[in-house]
Design a protein that fits this description.
Elements (H helix, E strand, L loop, with lengths): L6 E7 L6 H11 L4 E3 L1 H13 L7 H10 L13 H10 L3 H15 L3 E7 L2 H5 L5 E6 L2 H14 L6 H17 L12 E4 L5 H22 L1
Parallel strand pairs: 1-3, 1-4, 2-3, 4-5
Helix pairs in contact: 1-9, 2-3, 2-4, 3-5, 7-8
The protein binds cytidine-5'-diphosphate.
The site of cytidine-5'-diphosphate (CDP) has 16 residues, from helix 2, helix 4 and helix 8.
Amino acid sequence: MSDRPPFFVIAVDGPAASGKGTIATGLGKAFSLPVLDTGLLYRCVGVLMQKAGEDLDDHEAAACAAALLTADQLNDPALRTRAAGEAASRVAVHPRVRDALMEFQRTFARQEGGAVLDGRDIGTVIAPDAPAKLFVTASPEVRAHRRWSQLKAQGERVSQEDVLADIRRRDERDGGRDTAPMKPAPDAVLLDTSEMTIDHAADAARRIVEAARATWLSAN
Ligand code: CDP
């Protein structure tokens, strides 16, 4: 009888607009696994606080908002805006917010069969034992162009320079915070998508995960 856990977890981490969301969705389809965009949790906490007129730096209020969050709140299109990304990054520095959101993410990861989770700390904190880990990057300029195109398609008017400034500020905050900073897990495979089309990147990710899955199956 095998000791292999009955779930195959794929951790996809990386900075804003690196392509990790599209890659995670593609991996979910390729391996028939459910996908959780964990950024939505932090976006939701930020948006709920802003709607309630609360200060995003107030860690008590942020922890309360995180504790009250429910899965049905994650479909709100307001979570996809530029402002929501910035608010998410500010509430994500609070350790109690991260704690409050941890169990939800771990439960999702441990479901029968497994799951794909994308975020900043999946391979390091949420699922450090995940048998497949990717850290997806791209240059800030390429990421800014991608995010600007997305925001434009959503009807947001913003310059590419301002999006690049957002991205640089977010990289610094996400990578510099004390709790669960964004960084590749030591056993993550780095995937730089700067020079890749999204189809090419999704293909490369699938091949990396196929190799990790073969190793995982043979080791158990
Ligand atoms: O889509 P994008 O990469 O711009 O952002 P996101 O994945 O929706 O995450 C928004 C913000 O939430 C990030 O800038 C992080 O500050 C935070 N976040 C985090 O700290 N940990 C995660 N696992 C996911 C997101």
